[in-house]
Specification:
With 118 residues, this protein is of the alpha+beta class. It has four helices and four strands; from the N terminus they run E-H-E-H-E-H-H-E. Helix content is 33%, strand content 27%. Strands 2-3-1-4 form a four-stranded antiparallel β-sheet.
Length: 118
């Protein structure tokens, strides 16, 4: 089964074009280093929670939008190697994140069910 890196962040709504440029550039580098797929989703129906929510997790401000993203890798080993190369890639050293990375949540996930087309 494949391996997934998942991310949730708050991005200034006005920075959507800059975020999309950043995401496209990062996706290109990730795919060069073994990622199978990079998906970026711009929140348009993300409710506020009472106890927990995406908006609360990233401390979204009124002028921000929640972004939900994932990277699909062939395996955890491929992810570990690819992510290491991605972080060391010179293009990443100069790339500026158009959001507050301190409020981003992320993690790696083992796929246990996938009903998508093969």
């Amino acid at each position: 089964m494949s391996y997934i890196d998942g991310f949730v962040a708050a991005v200034a709504t006005a920075n959507k074009p800059a975020y999309l440029d950043h995401a496209r550039n990062a996706a290109q580098v990730l795919k060069e280093h073994g990622a199978l797929q990079v998906v970026e989703c711009w929140g348009d129906d993300v409710p506020e929670g009472n106890l927990t929510s995406f908006t609360m997790a990233v401390q979204r401000k009124p002028d921000e939008t929640v972004v939900f993203s994932w990277i699909t890798w062939p395996s955890k080993a491929a992810r570990n190697e690819g992510m290491k190369k991605f972080m060391e890639d010179p293009r990443m050293k100069t790339m500026q994140m158009p959001f507050d990375g301190k409020r981003m949540i992320y993690g790696g996930f083992e796929v246990i069910l996938d009903t998508g087309a093969k």
